[in-house]
Amino acid sequence: MSFLRAVANVLVKRTSVARPARSLGSVKHLSSDSAPLQQGNGSSTLHAKFPGALEASFVTTPKLALPENIEPIPIYRVMNSEGTIDDPSQEPNLEQATVQKMFRDMVLLNTMDKILYESQRQGRISFYMTNFGEEASHIGSAAALSPEDWVYGQYREAGVLVWRGFTISDFINQCYGNAEDQGKGRQMPVHYGSRKLNFVTISSPLGTQIPQAAGAAYAFKLQPNNQRCVITYFGEGAASEGDTHAAFNFAATLDSPVIFFCRNNGFAISTPSKEQYRGDGIAGRAAGYGMAALRFDGTDVFATYNATKLAREYVLRENKPIVLEAMAYRIGHHSTSDDSTAYRPAEELEIWNTVEHPITKLKHYMIRRGWFDEEKENEFVKSVRKQVLAQINQSERIPKPDWREMFQDVYEEMPIHLKEQLRSMEEHVEQHREHYPLKDFKQ
C-alpha cells in the first residue's frame, strides 16, 4: 500500500491546478495565433508551431489541396521497347554474363510457368499462379539486392528465388507437396520459402507480410554495423489492405530500412486499378507517410535493377523506408481459379505479350550488343522443358510427407496437448489403416 500511496502522491502533484505564473514572453513562442509577417502571396515567412505539422506555414486565404493539381510521379525508364537505352548515363554497365543470367532466368521462369500451369489444368496439382509479364521486376530487383537481404514475398515473386538459386526440383516439389518439399507439404502450391536463401515462406492472406517486413527491418537496424535491408513485394490490390497502411506508418515513424516493392500490374484479380483507388498509384501515397518513393517501368529489367539498387543504398544509408512502384501488366490469369478473358480484351493482351514483353525488350538489347545467339537460346529452352518435365515425373512418385509432421515445428519443444493429439491420431490410424492411403505417405 505504501507504494500505491507514493504513486498517488506523485499523480496529485502532477495534476495540481496550482501553476507558477509565466510572463507572456516565456510562452509567446508556443502560441499558434501569433501572426507572423505575411508575404505578398498570402503565405507567411514563418512556420507554424503545431506539433502535427511543423513545416506548414500560415496563409490568409483558404485554398483546397486538390489531387488533380498534384503532378503525377513520373515513370523512370532505361530501355525502350526496342531494347535501346534512352539515356546512356543510365546504362547499368553490367557484364555480359550477368545480363545473360538475367535473360535466362526470365526464360526459365516463363518456361516453367507454362508447364506447371498445364500441370494444374491436367489435375496433377491443385493450384498455380504464373508470372507472365512480370519477370523483369523479379530478376531486376533480385540482382540489385545482397543475398543477405531478407525477402518477404506475396505469391508472384518466383523469379527472385530463381535468381538466388532455388532449383527446378525445389519449385516442383513444393507445388506437388511431397516429402522433398522444404515446407513439408503444409502450404498450397507456389507458397515457396527458403531459410537458406533468406526468403520468408509465403502466406496466402494478402498484406500480412508487409508489417512483418517493417518489423524485421527495424530489428536489423538495431543490430550494430547492420548491412542488411528487407524487401517486401506486394500487388497494388494488396496495397488496399489495412496491413499495408499500418506497415507504411510503422516503417516511417520507426525509420526502418525496408523497401516496399509494389508490383502494379493493373489488376487485383479482376478489378482494374481505376476501380481500386483514386490517387496517384501506390508511390503517390509515400509522401503522406513521410517516405521516399520511386516509380519505374517494371517491364524494363535495367530500370528495375537501377531503382532497386538506388533504394537499397538509400534505406541503408538513411535508415529509412522507401516505396518502389513497378508499373507492369499481368499477362496471365490471376491464378488457375481465374479467367481473365472475361474482363479484358485480347488485343490489349497481345501488345503486352509481344512489343512490351520484358523478355522481348532484353532480347533486343542483347542482339544490339552482339550477346544473343538464337540457336543457343532455343537449346536452352528445350533443356529447361526437359528438366521440368523430368522433375514432374519424379516429384509425382515421391511419397507425401509423414503425416505425423503436421504436429511438429510449431513449438521448439512439443507441448503436452500436442503430444496427446499425436498419440490419439496414431491410435486412430492404426485401428483404421484400411481407410487411409498410407502407402502414399513417407513412413
From TrEMBL:
Keywords, alphabetical: Metal-binding, Mitochondrion, Oxidoreductase, Potassium, Thiamine pyrophosphate, Transit peptide
Record-given protein name: 2-oxoisovalerate dehydrogenase subunit alpha
EC number: 1.2.4.4
Localization per Swiss-Prot or TrEMBL: Mitochondrion matrix
Major site of localization recorded for this protein: mitochondrion
Required co-factors: thiamine diphosphate
GO BP terms, alphabetized: branched-chain amino acid catabolic process
Any Gene Ontology CC annotation: mitochondrial matrix
Organism name: Anopheles stephensi (Indo-Pakistan malaria mosquito)
Stated role: The branched-chain alpha-keto dehydrogenase complex catalyzes the overall conversion of alpha-keto acids to acyl-CoA and CO(2). It contains multiple copies of three enzymatic components: branched-chain alpha-keto acid decarboxylase (E1), lipoamide acyltransferase (E2) and lipoamide dehydrogenase (E3).
Family per record: Belongs to the BCKDHA family.
Domain of life: Eukaryota
Catalytic activity field: N(6)-[(R)-lipoyl]-L-lysyl-[protein] + 3-methyl-2-oxobutanoate + H(+) = N(6)-[(R)-S(8)-2-methylpropanoyldihydrolipoyl]-L-lysyl-[protein] + CO2
Dehydrogenase E1 component domain residues: 105-402
Biased composition (Polar residues): 32-46
Residues covered by region (Disordered): 24-46
Enzyme class name: oxidoreductase
